[in-house]
Amino acid sequence: MKKKYMWLVASVMSLSFSFGSCVDEIAFGNSFLDKAPGGDVTSDTVFNSAEYTRQYLNALYRSQYYGLPWFNGEGSSFPYPMNYWSANCVSYLTDMYQIFWTGCGTVKSYYSGNRTAGDGSDRCAFDFIKNNVWGTTRAGWNLIEHIGSVPGIKEAEKKEMVAQAKCLIAAAYYNIFRHYGGLPIIRKTFTGTETSYDIPRATVEETVNFIVGLLDEAKGDLPWAFSSSNTVSGNYDNAENDMGRWTRAGAMALKCKVLLFAASPLFNDDVAYAGGASEAEMQRLVWYGGYKKELWDQCYTACQEFFEELRSKGFYNLEKPVSANPTPGEYRYTFRHAYYYRDSKEVLHSTRITSTSLSGNYFSSGLSNAGRIGSPTWEFMCKFPWADGRPFDWNEAEKDGKLNEIFVEWANPNAKYDAKNAILTRDPRMYESIQVNGVPRSLSANGQMSGDPWEGWINGAEAGTNPQKQSSSMWGSGFMNNKHMIDARKSTSADNATKGIPIHWPYLRLSDLYLTYAEAMLQSKNDFDGAIAMVNEVRGRVGLGDAVKCNPGQNLRTDKQALLNLILNERACELAFEDSRYFDLIRYKMKDVFEKPLHGLIIYRLGDDGKRDNDKWQGTDKEANIPFPSKFEYEITPITTNKRVWWTNGFDSKWYLSPIKQTEIEKGYLIQNPGW
């Protein structure tokens, strides 16, 4: 059944990001393209100038997905609602984070179970209309269709620009595909003179093939990598323009990610996730219609091709410590470099905005808004293994009397405080992801810790009197988010103190590809050894031991589910706050995780007599040269503020995919997702 598809007129005919609303008139943003002398810039003007065409492509890059909560002063961001006022970050829907601000969209729509197809974008994790998917698509095809006639650009550059545009379209489709399933496929621009738009919502298979096809077409005309002379200590205000552009490596990596999502049980299973009776399921708009092993084979082949190219061409690599015998602090800084800095050879593709300020436009790093930015949970903390790679188990640590060592241990607990005596006892990635009790504040590039430790106990210097209070102004869970919030952007030069590094979003990271390949090896080939080797590469660069040796009771070489669980746990630890965990949960239809109530941790300082001592250390104790406290009492406490409806009523399968806006459904051209 064909459906008249009129929705596209408004969204595809205009360039909604930085461009005007008319078909031909294009008003460019001030940092990308000035208007031509004497009037508005039109399509004819743009594509009659090499400079304007290049700047048109530059402007198109502004539409890319940017996953950090960011407020632009107009109530929108990329994606549209992903700002700290709406707080609709998908990580907040997982078992790893909890939002305590009752006024945000996450609480009002998702935690409450009140999400509907009629909600506005401020209550939607990824809006069907307002995320520049369709504007990006129109603008990309507009460039592709006109590039041939542009004077002053060599054919090789034109091909590369076309390839970049195809990657931008493919990425835009992938971003929304993860939320909605099958999509209308746009293969050209529209003039506005068409009498109808016979573009129905495509099947999942057709949508995936479209995205993969664009990436395959693009990769041959792209360089494997762009290099830059910039370093962590360099001046990022003068970064090369090519940094952040789509490359052959990025295109091939995204193909792997697309195929991984497509091959997963959400879409690829014997039974549709909502039972199979809905129109969307019967028309295969939200699944493949049955299990297809060849989908895993395709993902495996794509990963194999990527790593073969990587071995051949190099350039990208997992970040590793420089020294021969790295300390836990060095491993931690290595991981920071991997996700945080744009010059990392581990970043395959990144997106960014122009602001370099951590506060103001970004979620605040201060304690005053700790509950607004997603408080890590006790469950998330428990996912990180010990520093040697052995799995962490709270009950075992308590039984063995090691709870006072779960965050940090002191080489000489009776000596005057010295940050150099602090020993990190857990997976180095935990300290980058979570602010925990007792860890010194600062970390240098050589892994040296310094500064006073965080005091997370009741009445501690950072915690205050009520850190467990579950509100927007408190820690709520006893932990603070640390990922992407490291205060290391400011120049050490006095005359350059206001300049910083543009905060980027690591859209594709090499460690993700290692874990993707591991999963594909397991699912496609039952290659346990190969999958374990990939996992060990990621674990090893932060000092964790061999996965099999560290988990002797898990039968990782023979138990497929056990190894899959390990891979997913590694993804949670490695890719926290990088949009991984939520999509891992939905693609494996892990309703049991969504239904599990979450907890925080209350910490009490103990005195020498074993009784609670509620004094902070950074006052008189520090001045009196009393060692930093090393004995604590812990209380696991349930999260009661903003309890999620799934914890009490169960997780309805409809939540696996988002509802298409009701206003669009009522126009009669789209089929709604199951349950909405």
Explain what this protein looks like in three dimensions:
Residues 1-39, 73-85, 229-240 and 488-499 have low confidence and may be disordered. The longest helix has 26 residues, at 155-180. It contains 23 helices and 12 strands. Helix 6 (155-180) packs antiparallel against helix 7 (204-219), helix 7 (204-219) packs antiparallel against helix 8 (248-263) and helix 10 (293-313) crosses helix 15. Strands 1-3 form a two-stranded antiparallel ribbon. A two-stranded antiparallel sheet has the order 2-10. It has a two-stranded antiparallel ribbon with strand order 4-5. The chain is mainly alpha-helical and 676 residues long. 34% of the residues lie in helices and 7% in strands. The radius of gyration is 25 Å and the shape is globular.
Report the end-to-end length measured between terminal Cα atoms.
21 Å
The side-by-side strand order for the widest beta sheet comes to: 1-3
- The number of strands is 12
Percent range of helical residues? 25-40%
- List low-pLDDT spans: 1-39, 73-85, 229-240, 488-499
Shape: globular
Rounded Rg: 25 Å
Biggest sheet architecture: 2 strands, antiparallel
Subunit organisation of the chains: single chain
Secondary-structure class: mainly alpha
Mean pLDDT: 84
Strand content: 5-15%
The number of helical runs is 23
List the helices and strands and how they pair.
Elements: H1 8-12, H2 43-46, H3 50-60, E1 97-98, H4 105-111, H5 133-146, H6 155-180, H7 204-219, H8 248-263, H9 279-282, H10 293-313, H11 328-340, E2 347-352, E3 375-376, H12 378-383, H13 394-399, E4 408-410, E5 422-424, H14 428-433, E6 434-435, E7 440-443, E8 449-453, E9 480-481, E10 504-509, H15 510-525, H16 528-540, H17 547-550, H18 560-574, H19 581-587, H20 591-594, E11 599-605, H21 620-623, E12 632-638, H22 645-649, H23 662-665
Antiparallel strand pairs: 1-3, 2-10, 4-5, 6-9, 7-8, 11-12
